[in-house]
Specification:
By secondary structure, the protein is α+β, with helices and mostly antiparallel strands.
Length: 126
C-alpha cells in the first residue's frame, strides 16, 4: 500500500545522480563516494557562524577525519589518486580546456575563410 508522497518513507531514491564533491582538485571526506575501509566515518552537522556545515568524524581516533591521508581511505568510484587529488575533478578540468581549444580552432577556421574570400576577390581584381 502506497501513500504517495505523504512522507514516512526513504527519500532521495529518484533524485539526481550523485556527483563527486572535491574541494578544488583535492578529494574531500564529504564526497558521497568517500569511504573508510574500517567503517569508522561518522557524519555530523555543526553550526558555525550561523551556517550549518557537515563535519566528518573518525570513530577510531575520536577526532575529525583526515581524509585522503588516512591509510583506510578509499573512493567507491576509484577516483582517489595517491597524492589526494580527485581524478574526476582533473578529468572535468581537462574537458573544459578541450572545449576551449575546440572553440579556438573554430574561430581560426572562420578567420581563415574570411581571408580566403578576400584573397579570392583580390585575385579576381588583378
Amino acid at each position: 500500500m502506497s501513500y504517495g508522497g505523504r512522507g514516512g518513507g526513504r527519500r532521495g531514491r529518484g533524485g539526481r545522480p550523485k556527483q563527486p564533491r572535491p574541494i578544488g582538485e583535492m578529494c574531500s571526506p564529504t564526497c558521497p563516494f568517500f569511504r573508510c575501509s574500517q567503517n569508522a566515518l561518522m557524519y555530523t552537522k555543526k553550526y558555525s557562524h550561523g551556517r550549518m556545515i557537515t563535519v566528518v568524524m573518525c570513530r577510531l581516533v575520536g577526532d575529525r577525519c583526515i581524509g585522503y591521508r588516512c591509510q583506510y581511505a578509499y573512493c567507491e568510484k576509484r577516483y582517489l589518486l595517491p597524492d589526494g587529488r580527485c581524478a574526476w575533478a582533473l578529468k572535468k578540468k581537462e574537458g573544459e580546456s578541450d572545449e576551449k581549444f575546440i572553440e579556438d580552432i573554430k574561430e581560426e577556421e572562420k578567420e581563415y575563410k574570411k581571408i580566403k574570400r578576400v584573397a579570392k576577390d583580390l585575385d579576381d581584381f588583378i
